[in-house]
Amino acid sequence: MFEFSYRSTGLFEPVFHSHTFYEVYYFHEGKCNYLIGDQIYHLAPGDLILMYGMTLHCPKIDPSVPYVRSIVHFDPAILRPYMELPQAVPILQPFEQFKNYRLSLRGDDKEEAERILVTMESHQRRGDQVGAGRLLLAFADLLHFIYDRCLQPLSEQREFPSDKEKSVQDVIDLLEHQYADDELNMERLQKELHLSKSYLAKIFKEVTGVTIFEYVYRKRINEAKIQFLLQPGVAVTEVSFRLGFKHLAHFSRLFKQHVGVTPERYKKDLKEKRVAMEKVGDGEWTYST
Fold first, then answer.
1. HTH araC/xylS-type domain: which residues (predicted)?
2. Residue 289 lies in a domain
């Protein structure tokens, strides 16, 4: 799977999401806070983000100014031919080691990255087999560029644009450890962070675009998907209780709201996909998503 969108400007409804493929995100212009897992990134033009996939992420944009970004979604398997070449470098290592990471490209580095993106877009516009092949080659070049920049010492200390965003980061850090606690509530957050409930709710929504418990529930649902994938035999009820839901009906309703199907249906679909992929390995028939 390979998808490339160059200088996309379309508006969307911000929602936390995850996916199984890798992502390269390049920020051209706009005002954006990008929440990835437990980190908030205040973006500037030239910022390039690597995303490992399954981590929840969501941009919070200012709609009053143009929001321009280029995005590549890709299955790392498509790069296997390049990884097997003589003198190949491990271009996927930054994704695997850092999971999610921001490169702040400026000056010549910014110009080079944007030049590669322009080349990719020109090959994509051809719309033929040669263009598709050259597009993938140009993307491999981009990954080599990224790998090279990730070798440089990472000594930059994170800074937050404001106390407000630092406070929201503190909330997220706390939620990373307590999101599955069935006793989690605003009173606990207020007590542990020494900030009022109303202030916490207000600034979290301002910075991330969602409420605190929208974030918590989306994180729980994402974790449920991972547990269903990695532990096929686990019961829906067990996962529900593990993730802090006191009532199975509440878990099932939220799961369907976010995923589109019930947890039981999701588990069944995963099982059918596993069976199909096993048959691919036996050479009986193929399965495609």
1. 169-269
2. no
